[in-house]
Design goal:
Helix content: 10-25%
Low-confidence stretches: none
CATH class of the largest domain: Alpha Beta
Structural class: alpha+beta
CATH architecture of the largest domain: 2-Layer Sandwich
Distance between the termini: 27 Å
Number of domains: 3
Bound molecules: flavin-adenine dinucleotide
Oligomer: single chain
Amino acid sequence: MVLWEGKAVTLTNWAGNTTFHAKEVHHPSSIDELQRLVAASAHVRALGSGHSFNHVADTTGDLVALDRMPELVEIDSAAAQVRVSARTTYAKLAPLLHRAGFALANLASLPHISVAGSVATGTHGSGDAVPGLAAAVSGIELVTADGSPLSLARGEADFPGAVVSVGALGVVTALTLDLVPAFELRQYVREGLRPDALGHFDEIMSSGYSVSLFTDYRDTRVWLKRADELTDPDWYGTTPADGPRHPLPAMPADSCTEQLGVPGAWYERLPHFRADFPPSGAGDELQTELLLPREHAVAALRALFAVGDRIRPVLQISEVRSIAADDLWLSPFEGRDSIGVHFTWIKDVAAVLPVVELVERTLAPFGPIPHWGKLFTRWPECPDRFRELVRRLDPDGKFGNDFTRVLLGE
Ligand SMILES: Cc1cc2nc3c(=O)[nH]c(=O)nc-3n(C[C@H](O)[C@H](O)[C@H](O)COP(=O)(O)OP(=O)(O)OC[C@H]3O[C@@H](n4cnc5c(N)ncnc54)[C@H](O)[C@@H]3O)c2cc1C
């Protein structure tokens, strides 16, 4: 139970599989109030929009929701940058940027998530040439353990450790993001990609600005987001979908962004899900994602297809995406162009966990790093420089929780 506005409530994440253990949730409405709160608290952690599937956002101390903090979207057209409040969601931010003639280089599958929470866990979309959302961050402002503010900009020594930080360094209050000129995309779904087409993996993944494969390790469909029309009726042996499709084959496509090649604004095509609908099964799922060096993509997918019969009983769908390398210390894409193999599971933790272990074992030879906001059981080595940064900025572990203690090897 958590004290939320003085009342005892059960606070859970979006999927409802994680119950928060905080003693109280606070809603500061100014930076001053937040600074006083952090300085006075023994254990504190920020909550974003609560979309992570594990305990990354949890604390037994004070949980800070930023929903009453002033909302900020300051576009600097000359610098092609926006300074945005941590709590702001991509759903709110994207149309404002578009109206000003700008875009973000990429978005995740759903826009309902907060900028700070997404960046903190290394959230990403797909695109051979496009890195994760954190790579757009050029400045970060946070409240640190003693309550004092800290601003870091790209180029400063600690900056690459402070962006993907799983909330371990402080409460982020604002971020500055790089912008690109607004652009349009068309979205196509192609069905019936045969397993032997994996031999053309690189060509397929580079056929659009953002390409995803959705598969149950038997039937595979391609989500293709690109500027140009796709006219080839026999593209890699696939057929064009004859109507809008949901990534889960049995679900109606009302919640999905427009398909069938209709051109539209970047923020209405890059996410699979529309901002004005709850995404997919509205919480009726669990997720895992493993990020691997791009060069292992085909071998890794073949290994998963070989155990597909054991994955399918608890799988709703898998999504395969590509992500360009970045230089952020805790990012799964640090120094490596990557492939993300994502699993949307049924919502049954006991049945799913043995299969999570199976896919972790199957992919272990390829050097996977888990998505920090999803379910996993194998922890990779924490980069020493990230561990050193956490110990320097938060020597008493004020922002620590069970998740960061395991990550940091404490
Ligand atoms: C339906 C669905 C679809 C998804 N699709 C994708 C996808 O396409 N790609 C992808 O990569 N991921 C995806 N995810 C995962 C999701 O992007 C991550 O879990 C992300 O962290 C969610 O952001 P959030 O604001 O909900 O963060 P939360 O879950 O609230 O928090 C995540 C972490 O960020 C920290 N944090 C949040 N706010 C702050 C702050 N102000 N200061 C410091 N730390 C903070 C928290 O302490 C915690 O450690 C999806 C999740 C769901 C439920």
